[in-house]
Amino acid sequence: MIPRPFRIDVRIAFFLMMIAVFFSFTVQAAPSFTRSEETTVPLRVTTGNEQGYTIKVLALRTDAGLMIDLESFSRALRLSSRQESGILLMEETDAAPGSSCQVKSDNNFALLVPKDSQRMKRVVQLQSAPVLMDGKLFLPVLNACRLFTLWLDKDVVYDYSSGIMSAWLWGTRLGDSVGYVGVVRPGETVAALQEAQIPAEPGTVIKGVNVENRANGAIITFTASGKGVRTELRKPDESGRAYLSFQNASCNIDALTKLFSGGLVKSITPVRPSDGTLQFALGLDNRGYSIKTVDFQRDEKNNRYQVYVMSEADVEGIRQKEKEQQIAKVINSDIEKWKLNTIVLDAGHGGHDPGAIGGRGTREKDVALNIVRDLGNLIAQKWPDVRVIYTRKDDRFIPLHERGRIANRSGGKLFVSIHCNANRKNHIKGSEVYILGPHKSKDALEVAMFENSVITKEADYKQRYKGFSTEYLIMSSMAQSAFAKQSADLALEVQDRIDRPNSTNGKGVRQAGFMVLWTPSMPSILVEAGYLSNSEEEKILRDRQEQTKIAYGIFQGLERYRKDYENARIAAAEQ
């Protein structure tokens, strides 16, 4: 047996050697190509609880295949990055404590450095070296996906049939407890870095692999199709790696390469030895667990191959850890549930209902629609992770009750309704922001009555709105009380940023019984952008540049509200 201090010295020497390799050694030449065309590739990111976003990643379409801009890819995954002299450094910003990944042009190795000094650095061998073009580093699409998979311990894949990349960022980090996964040792073939699919052959096809952790071990199940084949199990070696070999079998390497944490099984890696068999390397944690036996059995009825790993472990400790993981999962689920990821924009009036009309013929429905479109475009540009839902995107009439239903069906987290005002006293001007509630002034009542008059343009309005009264409004306001503070906070932020000088209608947020604010089950505001009855303000409201300015002011209010809201949400989750 090698003395322990000597083994530590060997590890240190090896890691220093790998660092030297990273900066000086190239295993495989970078792909060469004679022509290229700039393009983009959609990246669909899932952040959990059916939430996520889609964003485009810069790429080159070449005669050698599709090449991905690594810096663009990292930004799309919300990672920070900086590049200099052909070296790209990417860092995790949201994860704690996080890690960094460094790649270099014409070099086949990536250096993964955890910010936690207690964790090991890793060197990952790339199948091909990054190519530097016009100051940007490119990798073939499959290689790029595999790099981010190994670094982040998340599934990042590319689908040739659809031309879409997908990343699943939900859940805890898979590789936290795996100290050596990804470390390239001399002479070792790292199959997890390969992206080729083992070609299908006659016989059996391994379709999936599942690990079920138990208090006294784990069960590894391989599901298959086709006829049964000869199978051999090699018991774990000193490093804790066992091997399950299938003769005359095939599989998809990318789909079945797995990394795990928090359990007995650390990794599952399919490889193809020189003798042509299909072999799965089973990485077992023989440091944290005392492995007693490893046995194999085939379930012929269900065409499954199962490996049973028995261990001696701290049963109470494992149960406590499982409980903590379950609690963390629930907390993360709640955090995702209340993430501000869907905003519903409502352009007032529309179709046969023009709304207020100014002295120069400016129609409220047109102004509101332009502001809503501009606001939606701003949200899409600034917040690619936020989904924008429109109650209408063109000149059509949408009943008031249906607008709220659209918001609720889409899972909206905010509802913003845009209108223009009018008054018999044409000297009145200025913007106003309302929330739902009993009116506290005659002016607020008049504004609400005008906006609510649209219901008479609905065919069945008498039957549909027969229950609307002051009493019903109070009850609706009470039902909305869960969102009252958020609605008021949002209204204040928006009002502060769209208020114009020389306003004559007073400051502050107002409340009134707007029917369009009844049904949305979320924080909701109604913005009156200005008075079309005032000739000076009508001139502003009909100007496209001014409409865009109003939209930007509303967005600034949303931006401030979102920052405060999500900071409060995170703080509450940490308590």
From TrEMBL:
It is an enzyme of class 3 (hydrolase). The keyword Hydrolase applies. PANTHER family: N-ACETYLMURAMOYL-L-ALANINE AMIDASE, N-ACETYLMURAMOYL-L-ALANINE AMIDASE AMIC. Pfam families: Amidase_3. GO terms for molecular function: N-acetylmuramoyl-L-alanine amidase activity. One of its GO terms (biological process) is peptidoglycan catabolic process. It catalyses: Hydrolyzes the link between N-acetylmuramoyl residues and L-amino acid residues in certain cell-wall glycopeptides. The keyword Hydrolase applies. Its EC number is 3.5.1.28. Keywords: Hydrolase. InterPro entries: MurNAc-LAA_cat, N-acetylmuramoyl_amidase_3. Residues 404-559 form the MurNAc-LAA domain. GO terms for cellular component: outer membrane-bounded periplasmic space. This is N-acetylmuramoyl-L-alanine amidase.
